[in-house]
Amino acid sequence: MSVGPYNYSYIFKYIIIGDMGVGKSCLLHQFTEKKFMSDCPHTIGVEFGTRIIEVSGQKIKLQIWDTAGQERFRAVTRSYYRGAAGALMVYDITRRSTYNHLSSWLTDTRNLTNPSTVIFLIGNKCDLNAARDVTYEEAKQFADENGLMFVEASAKSGENVEEAFLETAKKIYQSIQDGRLDLNAAESGVQHKPSQPGGRNTLVNDQTASKDSCSC
Amino acid sequence: MNEPPSSAVTQDFGDNGSLGQSNVLSKRLNKILETRLDTDKETLEALKELSNFFPENSIQSRRNLRSKIEKRSLAINEEFLSAFGKVKDALDSVYNDVVSIDSEVRAMSSHLQATRAQTHQLIDHTTQLQAQSKKLTMEQEVANAFLERYQLSPAELAVLQGTSRDSPITPAFFTALQRAQSIHSDCRVLMQSGFQTVALDVMEQMSLYQEAALERLYRWTQSHCRSMESSETAALLTEAMACLQDRPVLFKYVLDEYGSCRRANLVGLFIDALTKGGPGGALKPIEMHANDPKRYVGDMLAWLHQTIPSERESLIALLRECSKTDVTEHIHQILANITEGVCHPLKVRIERILSTDASTTILYSVASLLGYYHQIFSQVVPESIFSNTIAEVRTLAQNRFLSALQNRVKQHLVDRLDAPPPDLSPSTSVSALMSLLKEVLSVAGVADGRPEDIAKMVGVVLDPLLQAVNLSAARLPTTDMAVYLLNCLYQMQATLSLYGFMDDRLERLQAQSDAQLDTLTSEQASSLVANLNLGPIYTILQETSRGPLSNVPGMDAASLKHFLVKLDAFLGLPDMLLLPQISLLLSTVHRNNVKHRAFEVICTIFKQLYVAVHDPVNGYQNPNGLIPRTPEQIQELLLGDRQ
C-alpha cells in the first residue's frame, strides 16, 4: 500500500452527534490529538477531523464530522448525516437531559442515514462518576433495545475513546466483508481507495463524466 | 719351437765377432737354460697345440713340421682373413647405415633449424598480436565501462522512449529517467577531468533523452491523471508529477487537465447526489427536499463541504513527491478549479429557491445558511470562483430577504396602521412587526450574523414603523401622544433587548422614550399643581420683591389652610390626582418614573412654602400650627421611604 499515493485502503465517514456540551468535540480531539481540550469552545456548525487507524491489517482513514449540539445549528448539522458510515451518538452521564434526548437524536440518525450506518452510543464524562445521573445499566438497556453499540468513555481521561472509534470502524469493516455495505454505491460513507482499481463506480463516472465535459 | 731360435742364434754367432758373439751367445744360452718351461704357459700352450697336429715325432714329420706349421699358419691366417672379411663387410654396412643416419639427422637438424627460425618470427608475431589483443580488450573494457556509466542501456532507452506512442509508463521508466539525469550530472566530473567534448556530447544527448521522455511522460500523465483511483497508475502519477515539476509549463498543463477532469467528476457526483441519491434508495436524492428551501440549500452545501476534503486529499497525494515547488499554491488553485464546475448548478438552484415566494423567515435562514457556508468556503477554497459564487448568492439571498421584509413591513403599515386605540396601547401593526422581527431574529442561528446585517434588518422594520407611529401619534393630544409613543417604544425596546448588537438602536429608542417621559412628567406635574391650587402659591413664592408673605393675598393663613386641606386629601390617596393616561402606560417603570418626578415637583414647592412660612420675615403666626407636616414627612409619604 505504501507505494500508492494513499497510505490507506478505505475512507470511513463518521458523524458525531448529541446535545450541546456533552463533549463531542473533546472526544474528537482526544481521538485525533490524544489530548484533552479543557476549555473547548462551542462548535460552530461542523468541524472536521481525520485519523488513520488499522483494522484487520487494513489502513483506514477516518473522516470525522463533529457537529454543533446547539439547536440553532440543527438545520446545518442535519445535512451532514448523509452518507455517514458511522454515527457516534454522545450523551453526558452527569446530565440526564442529554440522555433523554437520545431518542430524538436516534430518530434523526435513522431518518437521515443508510440502514447500514453503524450507530455507536457513548456515555461521556465517565470520569465524573460521583456526579453520575444516568446508570450504566439503563443506558446499556437502551442501547440493546435499539441495536446500538455502547460504551462509557471519558474524553478527559481518554478512557474508551479509542475503543469507541475503533469498534465502530471494525463493525463497518465487517459489514464490508459481509457484503452488507455496498462499496460501489455512492454515498455509502466508505470510499475504497487503492488496491482495487475501479472498486468504486465513481471511477466509471469519472471517465464518462469527463468525456461529456471534454466534448463540450 | 726351441730349436729354430737356437739355430738362428747359432747362425748369428757365426756371422758376428767371435767374442761378442760368444758373450751374447752365452747370455742367450743362459737365458734359455734359465727358462723354466713348465712355468711358461704360453710355451706350454704352444706345445699343447703342437701336439695336436704333430702326433708322431719322426724325421719326416720333423722335416715337414716347418711347412706344416707354415701351412697351418697360412690356413689360419686365411681363415682369419675371411672371418675378418665378413666383419669388415658387416662394419661396412654399419658404416653405411650410420652415414645415412647421419645425413638424415643432419637434414633433420637443418630442417629444425629452418623451422626454428621460421617459428621465431611467428612467435614474435603472436606475442605482438597478444599484446595488441590485451590492449584492445582493455580498451573495450574501458569503453564498456564508459558506456555503462555514460550511456543508457538499450533496454533503458527502449523504456524511456516507449515502443509506440501509447506504450504505458512503467516504474522502470522513472529509473531510466533518473539514470539519464544522473548521467547528465556525472558529466560534470567528466568535464573536470578534461573530456569536455565527450562530456558535452553526452550531456546534450542526455538532455535530449530527458526532454523527449518528459514530453512523453507529460502526454501520458495528462491522459491518465483522471484515474487517480487505481493504485498502480496513482503511484506512477505521483512519481510522474515529481518528475514534471522541473518543467513548470508541463506541470501546470497536467494540473489543469487533472483539475478539469476532477471538476467534471465532481459535477457528475453532485448531480447524482441531487437527483439519484444514495444506495438502493436508502438515501433520498437531495432534490427530494427542494420544497424545503432550508434543507435543500443546506444539504447541497453540506454535500459540497464534505466532498472537498477528499478532493484535497487526492490532490495532496498526487503532489506529495513534489518537494521542489511549493504545492500549497497549486492546491489552492486546483481546488478552486475543481469546485468551479459545481458553481453553475448550485447557483441556478439557489437562485430558483430565492425567486419563489418563500417566507421572510425562510429567506432569512437561507441567507444565514449561505453566510455560514461562505465563511467555511472562504477558508477551504479561498479566493475561488466557488466561494465568490457563494458570496454572490448570499448577497442575493440577503437582498431578497430584506426586500421581502420591507414588503411585509409596508403591507402592515399601509393596511393596518389605524388611529391609536382608546387605551393607547401600541397599535396591532407594532405588535405584528415586532413579532415578525422576533421571528426572524430567533431564526438567526447558524451564522453568527454580522452586526451590520442585523442593524440593517432591524432598520428595515423599525424605521418605517417609528415613522408611522409618530405620524399617527401626532394627531393625539400631548398626554395621549406621549403615552402612546411610550407604549410603542416600550414594546420595541422589550423586543430588541432580547438580542445582541442592538445597543445602538436601544439607545436611540431610549432617548425617544426619555423625551416622551419628560413631556409626560411636566403634564402630570402641571396637573397636580392645578389640582392642589398650588399655582398661585408657587407664583408668589417665586416673586422676589414683596413684603411679608402673610399679607399677600392668596398667601394668607386662610388660603394656605385651604391648600393644606387639599394636600392632606392628596396625601391620603396620591394616585387620585394622577392623569388617567398614566395608568395606560404599559411599563410600570415609566409609570413610576412619571409619578415620582411629578411628586418631586410637589415636594419641592412644599419645601419652599414651608421654609417661607417658618421665616419670621413673612410674619406668620404659629407656623408649626399652620403647617403641621415637615417637608421630610411629605417626601416620605409621596416618594416612599427615600430621602
Automatic annotation (TrEMBL), chain A:
GO terms for cellular component: cytosol; early endosome membrane; phagocytic vesicle; recycling endosome; trans-Golgi network. Residues 189-216 are annotated as: Disordered. Its cofactor is Mg(2+). It is an enzyme of class 3 (hydrolase). GO terms for molecular function: G protein activity; GTP binding. SMART domains: RAB (SM00175), RAN (SM00176), RAS (SM00173), RHO (SM00174). Keywords: Acetylation, Cytoplasmic vesicle, Endosome, Golgi apparatus, GTP-binding, Hydrolase, Lipoprotein, Membrane, Methylation, Nucleotide-binding, Prenylation, Protein transport, Transport. The keyword Phosphoprotein does not apply. It is found in: Cytoplasmic vesicle; Early endosome membrane; Golgi apparatus, trans-Golgi network membrane; Recycling endosome. It catalyses: GTP + H2O = GDP + phosphate + H(+). It holds the Pfam family Ras. GO terms for biological process: defense response to bacterium; endocytic recycling; Golgi to endosome transport; phagosome maturation; protein transport. Transmembrane segments: none annotated. Residues 198-216 have a biased composition (Polar residues). Its main location: cytoplasm. PROSITE patterns: RAB (PS51419), RAS (PS51421), RHO (PS51420). Its EC number is 3.6.5.2. Belongs to the small GTPase superfamily. Rab family. This is Ras-related protein Rab-14. It comes from Frankliniella occidentalis (Western flower thrips). The lineage of its organism: Eukaryota, Metazoa, Ecdysozoa, Arthropoda, Hexapoda. The gene is LOC113201931.
From TrEMBL, chain B:
SMART domains: COG6 (SM01087). The gene is LOC117653226. Residues 196-638 form the Conserved Oligomeric Golgi complex subunit 6 C-terminal domain. InterPro entries: COG6, COG6_C, COG6_N. It is a peripheral membrane protein. The keyword Translocase does not apply. Pfam families: COG6_C (PF20653), COG6_N (PF06419). GO terms for cellular component: Golgi membrane; Golgi transport complex. This is Conserved oligomeric Golgi complex subunit 6. It comes from Thrips palmi (Melon thrips). Component of the conserved oligomeric Golgi complex which is composed of eight different subunits and is required for normal Golgi morphology and localization.
